[in-house]
Amino acid sequence: MKYTLYKNPFFKVYAVVDNGYVKIKTDGVASPVLRPFVSNMLEYFDGVKPAKVENDYLIFSTWIPPIPSKPFSRLVSSQINARIGRYTPEQITISITEQCPNNCVHCALPDTNNKKSLEPDTVKDIIDQCLDMGSTFVIFDGGEPLVYDGLENLVSYVDSTRAISGLFTSGVGLNRQKAEDLKKAGLDMLTVSLDSAKEYNHDMMRGREGVFKEAMSAIKNSLDAGLLVNMYVVLTKRNIDELYDFYELAYEMGVHELSFFEVVPTGRWIDHEAETLSHMDYERFDRFVKYANSIKGPRIFSVPHILEMTGCFAGKKWLHFTPEGDVYPCACMPLSYGNIYKNTIKELWGRIQKETVFDADYCLMRDSEFRENYLGILEPKK
Ligand SMILES: C[S@@+](CC[C@H](N)C(=O)[O-])C[C@H]1O[C@@H](n2cnc3c(N)ncnc32)[C@H](O)[C@@H]1O
Ligand code: SF4
């Protein structure tokens, strides 16, 4: 089976799955000329395990629309536009509520006392505006989005001919009925966060006993309901020794993908800028990613590796909406460019596009100069 990524009368890019691995092929009279220009984009797909293979479509990753599909074609168009400097907020995270029963030590959401939520009509308006601007991935974020009444209505509001929908959760209350309701509403991917493969350590990081068990049953119920499931680990010095344990757990649970991100010094973790992974930690992680791709088991999605290829997503491919309606260039960057109750999202995206600082090829939140100049965070004296 050939899965078409891109097609015009002179050039075609398609994927085949050979022995469990994706292979990228090109065809057409313009192929010898065009392939070298897009080879770095194609490299990302070539030679790795996909998340799920169906007869008529390929889910390369839980973070990307199925190939082929209308949202995927829109994503390809925005990637082509990005090459000529015209950026689209491809991925949006909407923090629909600040409410959360957990108390994670690293939570990116700054502590506020008002525990706000966005009204359903406001969320729908955000979705409408962003989809009109070309967004292809709508993620319901929090706080804990599963405590939001009427989440299913928001999920089903995402126009599946233009974007896929996703949910970030710690898993609280995701019983079989809820998983089936979300599946029926059309949820395209569900991400369950995991900070340790060990129950005690995960509960410690999440600030509440029982979160690990809830995460495990959320994963099981979601898989049983036929949802596409991603396990999401935010790497810190505290869990970097558990890479193989995470993989084993992801394999045992049968998730479709295991994703890794490095903790960002923001929110409750804002003063932990010095606690970054060492060069040796990165090397270990790099070896682990290569090894995990070579063995049977779920696909690995490594955000640090993606960022090396694409640069920082903030302000280029990502927009984040807070429960107060503020608009940030990224969920981890508490820098408001305006508010949805006062401005159109297009205006705010335009403001962000005028900033040259977002051309960064590394995570800006780890750059002390950026933190000081843009966020007013002075680093502690050594
Ligand atoms: C803010 S949470 C909201 C959704 C849900 N409550 C959860 O924990 O999955 C979204 C994701 O951000 C991650 N996260 C929290 N704090 C972070 C930080 N300081 N740096 C990077 N990711 C962070 C969480 O682990 C989670 O995977
Ligand atoms: S990371 Fe998620 S689960 Fe943890 S406190 Fe923040 S919102 Fe709640």
UniProtKB/TrEMBL annotation:
One of its GO terms (molecular function) is iron-sulfur cluster binding. Keywords: Iron, Iron-sulfur, Metal-binding, S-adenosyl-L-methionine. Residues 86-299 form the Radical SAM core domain. One of its GO terms (biological process) is heme biosynthetic process. It comes from the Archaea. This is Radical SAM domain protein. The lineage of its organism: Archaea, Methanobacteriati, Methanobacteriota, Stenosarchaea group, Methanomicrobia.
